[in-house]
Amino acid sequence: MGSVRARAAAGATVVVALALIAAGTAVLLVLRGNLQEQAGLQAEVAAREVAAQIATGTPYAGLDLPDGEDHPVVVADDDGRVLTAGEDVRAVDGKPVRGAQHGAQGAGPGTSGDDDDDDRSGLKPGEVDDDVAHRDGTANVDGKVADYRFAVVEAKDTRGGKATVRAGAALAPEQEAVGSVRTAMLIGLPLLCVVVAGVTWLVTRRALRPVEGIRGEMAAITASTDLSRRVPVPPSQDEVGRLARTTNETLAALESSVERQRRFVADASHELRSPIASLRTQLEVGVAHPELLDVPGAVEDTVRLQRLAADLLLLARLDAGERPADARVDLAAMVREESSQRVADRVPVHVGELAGAEVAGSRSQLARVLGNLLDNAQRHAVGSVRVAVVREGEWVVLQVEDDGPGVPEGERERIFERFVRLDDARARDDGGAGLGLAIARDVAVRHGGSLGVRTGSVFALRLPVAG
Known about the structure:
Strand content: 15-25%
Radius of gyration: 52 Å
Distance between the termini: 53 Å
CATH superfamily of the largest domain: Histidine kinase-like ATPase, C-terminal domain
Strand order of the largest sheet: 2-1-7-6-5-3-4
Largest sheet: 7 strands, antiparallel
CATH class of the largest domain: Alpha Beta
Structural class: alpha+beta
Order of helices and strands: HEEEEEEEHHHEHEEHEEHHEE
Number of helices: 8
């Protein structure tokens, strides 16, 4: 049962088999009940015909009784003595009918000697009881014992003698019909279950064929590590088609992520190579000629390496999905504190409007965003850098503006990519590694906000106000 097709076929077969068994049982019960009801009705008609003859004064010896094999009839008095019986009726329910040849108890009406005053049935002479009792039993007719549905009717003759008429209707037709239906069901049920299992197997196989194609292609992609491949998409708009499309979307996202990771590693290696090579050169020169060692340059390269390593570590944590701390941060207070500590900036930082608003997140990461934005403004400003915090409905916006040439409109998204510097000819010492704005945007997104360029030289960090 390891196959989905096998489980589906088995499940469908079991369900259909149970449903057919329940339906077949109900049909048999209903059929049997109807046939028994018909037999009881036939027996009642026969019993009432005989009872009507008795009520009209017909002598017991002269009663017109139906055929004994189809409708065995026995007429008895209150004491159970057989007054007359149908032809060839020898026993009923195993009790022999002695001397029951037609007319054997040939006394006329009233010979039972019943008296109206002693009768508690409420019948008057010449009446037939409206109540009929039905029961199943057996009868021996001409040496053949069979099952019958009996109807029992009471009647009084014209002289007040009470007689009980017991007439039966053969149950053989009912038993044959029920047996035939049961046999047909016992033969048809296994055949129908086999058909259901086969059809379910074929339909499931056809439905799962695209899934097998998806599985095979995924196995091939795993073996080849070629993420540019895509699984086949069936033309149907069902769950399998949606699965294929979602799988391709996942593969595309995975390919993009892997490509981004490869490019990140390559760019990081390239960025690390220059300061490491410079530092190594200076140290080797210092070992050979101590008097030529550029200590400030070596320290500067070491600091640069330290900053680059810190940036790479932060990016790695952000890519790993690290969630920021759920603390309350007052942006206005943070701006005042961080701005007051930037005493060595080339261009002084002017603090503008500071709207009071708190956001949820990590203060250290948000301070890192502010620092990166101010560093970027310092590299491009002519003589002025301005920072402000404004409130926009349920959002708070931190704005950093400089009076530099601004970012061209076509480059306003590209500058947030990693290791991107618009001026490729600019010295690395002045332009940095190109990670500051990428880190700032990733932090903004992790805090449920956004970071972008509103105008040429205005960078806006938009964050939701803490709830």
